[in-house]
Amino acid sequence: MPKPSITVSTADRVFYAGNNAFLVLTLLVVLYPLIYVLSSSFSSTDAVISGRVWLWPVDPSLRGYEAVFTHQGILRGYYNSFFYMVVGTTVNVTMTILAGYPLSRRDFKARNAIMMFFVFTLIFQGGLIPTYILIRNLGMVNTRAVMIIPVALSVWNVIITRTFFQSTLAPELLEAARIDGCSDFQFVYYVVLHLSGAIIAVNALFYGVVTHWNGFFQGFIYLNEKRLYPLQLVLREILILNEIEQSMLTNVDLEALEARQGLVELLKYSLIVVASVPVLIMYPFVQRYFVKGVMIGAIKG
Questions:
Q1: pLDDT score at 4
Q2: What single DSSP character describes residue 227?
């Protein structure tokens, strides 16, 4: 028996062709800068400075990555960023769940009033100078804690998490757990966490990448000691301030590098690639939860 065919009109064909052409053009616009950065990071200093790199690496070289992994500030910044991301994301996700779950409980009478205080902070804030004075008076300036504690909780993520819990956790689950003698904390640990992989992955991605790995403003304001700088601040120094000292480089043939500016340009592209690797590794593991968690948390409720 022949399969029924769907008739596509000429107007539909024109629309599909135009749509596909637009998507291909968008892909090229987004993809080319990524290819250019990657190719430049593997090219020679000469090729990068003279602008001979267009698509593929020219005079392939690993000197940029050599300089990256022998630059003391970069390695230290890499370690600091990993520390802030791992410890900070753990604190963030824990705080978000501990705030979002009680606010999702219908038997919690004060949830609307507390939620109003949370939302209030999205609209009105103390300002940069009062916040700095507060952080200074708490003794957190030039400490690792200043990169974690002041950003321990995002109200926006609390709202998404609260909505997720309201949409996915049936009240009957709590009733059944209570009959079995389960306390509220046991219910959160043994039931809620196991059913909330999607929203936990979304929170981990938002906090880990946006707040900690890609964040630099917090460190720019509160950190003066370079030993505490995250990777993004080190990258800022190289890209904007061009602050790179020859004394900070070890085991690199400086005579083979044509000029100080050439080294800065080479480091710029190599460091962008190195800084992006953790995000590229992390995203595939949480991508399958990402859309589900965001859509459930943002649309329903």
A1: 61
A2: G
Q: What's the token pair of residue 212?
A: 């900690």
The answer to whether residues 216 and 237 touch, using CB atoms and an 8 Å cutoff, is no
The helix or strand, by DSSP H or E, that contains position 78, with its residue range, turns out to be: helix 72-104
Q: Which two tokens stand for residue 111?
A: 């949830």
Residue 274: name the closest of 67, 83, 86 by CA: 67
Contact 163, 300 (CB under 8 A): yes
CA-nearest of 208, 213, 264 to 241 is 264
Q: What is the pTM of this model?
A: 0.75
Query: Rounded to whole angstroms, what are the CA distances from 7 to 4, 75, 255?
Result: 10, 60, 69
Q: Please count the residues of the chain.
A: 301
According to the model, what pLDDT value does residue 76 have? 87
- Contacts for 273 with CB less than 8 Å, ≥ 6 apart: 37, 38, 41
Q: Which amino acid is at 293?
A: G
Per DSSP, the three-state class of 298 is helix
